[in-house]
Design a protein that fits this description.
With 461 residues, the protein is of the alpha/beta class. The chain is 27% helix and 35% strand.
């Protein structure tokens, strides 16, 4: 198959990189006809390259077959007008297979997104990128975003990979990026990737290539930003930022919260207990309100989680009471199970092994609490390799005693994502005792920040 060399691809990285959106049907199937239309519309404009199945292209929502189909469709719709780079990521095995298939589907380069587990050591991280780079002869671009934010020494090692051609910054830290660029020099090509609103910042560093999310809604504006910034027209750039870009990014930054109803049914040795029903309001990973709906004797009780701080408001008490997240709420369910389940932010993960369960390959992760303020000291977490859906978790105390096991079940689309809608928590010491959490009526909501304050709890209904 004809293959663009890494050096040839690098020479094309001047201008704007487009990121077409990957659409889905209501049945959660990839809408390839819609994707074909999106790519055709975008590539009617002179972008330097486009990226198929990147972050905007829903990389982490695609299985391997869908990923290949997205890349193949994007290559066909582009019809040779510009190179197509394929986004890959997740873990070494999946990313290597994605890259290999993308190359065979006609991609011209590979953009490596971070592994799905955070805080890997640098040796492991370098091995991840090396494996992806070695999987194909295509040029490799590495995307520094979220927790992947290494210093110049690591980037210099990465530049030694035979196919590595570019570093895409997604951090937006100009000082750090400048230090990296100064240390590594022209061994890599430098791409601005934190947003259209930082074009001026990147171009003042000498960068002349940036990735654009605005390319999906206004290709002409995205291209104009490059032209104006490259020409050094600061007055015109300020005008474009003021009139278009800053308002667009302010709109993008608005975080939608969600509301969901949770019913908890507990079974003990004496049989089924009275169900507990809750209404949960959540915004981001740091703000949650849990309102008790049933039983009637507990109605009006409200929990507020702010970061890792938890308070309970009782109608009969004038001030909220501070509670630990590990305290039992009902049955096998702790306060933190309902108010805060932020594995990514509260634990340091390590992949221990893979296991075969019901003919599926599972990654087994060990999650160690970052401090004593989280709900559990240690969690073992089984994740399906095929789609990164959770399978089960085991929760351990500080004394390393197994407290309970949670099974993640009934995956359905809710608030735009596929999620488990049923969690079964089984007591590890008292066999047969369990609590079943059923989630229903999840919907996105605009939730003002004032809801998540102690002073506002009494006003909630």
């Amino acid at each position: 198959m004809p293959t663009m060399t890494p050096s040839a691809l690098r020479s094309r990285l001047t201008g704007v990189v487009g990121f077409p959106v990957t659409p889905f049907t209501d049945a959660l199937a990839v809408d390839l006809d819609g994707l074909r239309s999106n790519v055709a519309a975008m590539t009617a404009h002179p972008f330097c390259v486009i990226v198929a199945a990147g972050g905007t292209g829903e990389l982490y929502s695609l299985n391997t077959e869908e990923h290949t189909a997205v890349v193949k469709t994007s290559v066909e719709a582009t019809a040779g007008r510009m190179p197509v780079i394929a986004g890959v990521g997740g873990n070494i095995g999946v990313a290597v297979e994605q890259a290999t298939r993308a190359w065979k589907a006609g991609a011209d380069g590979i953009l490596a997104l971070p592994p799905y587990y955070p805080h890997a050591d640098e040796a492991g991280l370098l091995a991840y990128y090396a494996a992806i780079g070695a999987a194909t002869p295509l040029g490799l671009l590495v995307y520094s975003r979220d927790w992947v934010n290494p210093g110049p020494a690591f980037v210099a090692k990465l530049a030694d990979l035979p196919t590595a051609i570019a570093w895409k910054d997604g951090q937006g830290d100009a000082r750090r990026y400048q230090i990296i660029m100064d240390a590594v020099g022209d061994r890599l090509h430098w791409v601005g990737g934190a947003g259209d609103d930082l074009v001026g910042t990147y171009y003042r560093l000498g960068i002349r290539c940036y990735t654009s999310s605005i390319s999906n809604v206004s290709p002409k504006l995205a291209l104009l930003l490059h032209d104006v910034a490259a020409a050094g027209d600061e007055a015109k750039l300020r005008e474009l930022m003021h009139r278009y870009v800053v308002p667009l990014y302010a709109f993008r930054a608005r975080k939608k919260g969600f509301e969901v109803s949770v019913t908890i049914t507990t079974t003990t040795a004496s049989g089924p207990q009275e169900p507990h029903k809750y209404r949960v309001l959540s915004k981001g990973n740091e703000n949650t309100v849990v309102m008790t709906v049933e039983p009637a004797s507990e109605r009006g009780q409200i929990m507020l989680m702010k970061g890792r701080d938890l308070w309970m408001f009782l109608p009969s008490v004038s001030q909220p009471v501070r509670l630990p997240s590990s305290q039992r709420l009902t049955g096998q369910v702790a306060n933190g199970d309902l108010a805060r389940a932020n594995f990514a932010g509260d634990y340091k993960p390590t992949i221990l092994r893979t296991e075969k369960i019901e003919n599926e390959t599972m990654y087994v992760l060990e999650l160690i609490a970052l401090d004593r303020g989280v709900t559990y000291h240690r969690v073992l977490y089984w994740v399906r390799q095929s789609n990164s859906w959770p399978y089960k978790a085991e929760f351990y105390s500080l004394s390393e005693r197994l407290l309970k096991t949670c099974l993640y079940q009934n995956f359905e689309k809710a608030a735009g994502r596929v999620r488990p809608t049923r969690l079964t928590m089984q007591d590890a010491l008292r066999k047969g005792e369990e609590s079943v959490l059923e989630y229903a009526d999840m919907k996105l909501r605009d939730l003002p920040d004032k809801i998540f304050t102690k002073d506002y709890l009494k006003r909630l209904e």
